[in-house]
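Memo to structure team: turn this sequence into structure tokens by end of day. - J.P.
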Amino acid sequence: MTSLTLRRANWSLQVFRSTRTFAVSFSTSLGSRSEAAGRLRPGTSSSFKPSRQNAHNANHPSARTAFTSTRQFQAEQAANVTSRTPSSYTSASKPTYNNATSSSPGTSSTTPDVQNLSGGLADQPLILDEGARQVDWTRSFHGLSVEPFSKEAAETLLQPIPFEDVEVKPDGILYLPEIKYRRILNKAFGPGGWGLAPRGETIVTAKAVTREYALLAHGRLVSVARGEQDYFSPEGIPTAAEGCKSNAMMRCCKDLGVASELWDPRYIRKFKTGHAKELFVEHVPTKKRKKIWMRKDDEVRYPYQETKGYGA
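Reply from structure team:
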């Protein structure tokens, strides 16, 4: 704190200043006017005659309060601002802001507005005019069950899945990788002879992405299914949208008979008996143990290692 003091015979002025405050103190050694008159020099009149400066102070009360403290000054300024505020400016007329971290116009937020994706990604398929010659696959069922596909295509679609193509999830569920579904469709209909048409908007929930697709082949509707895919962070939504499309394709292929064995309970039990195994593994970093399924020709990979059991 820095201070400045000015002293005279009958008055003293002190100024205090710090990093946040500023104060002024004024004091005088004179008492009342009668006391001041009693201390006049001998021979002078006892009647107190104010000087021109005192007369000016009497006519202008603001001059007597020129030296005020910082706290008083701030209170007076706040009162003046309140008195100048028009009564029509109410809370209803104040602008509103959508930022969660900023509630006043004077403050800025570094967090951008987060788009709510629970209603969808606003990627609704194009709706064609009623008079358009092209088929509107967003709502049309053109060609569904009109006639069977050729014998060659049917043999390709219905051929048994080789055991070496089937994979096993750790929970024991059998599945066929989505790329092998695409290979079967390409072999049956030819590259470009089939496709997936979205039937609705992509819906993004708190943990998953879902959308409905239609499987088309040779200009005909084959099947309609809804795909889904989980995600763990907003950055993974594009990858989840692609996984959702592949999931819908695999579900549509059930109507064509592709890999239908994977839904047959007898086939599942037979495959697990001859081609899969169940064993205990330990997670190396956390030392947690659990039981998993895997193919007999596969081996345990890091971060897991095979162990004897829970109590071993």
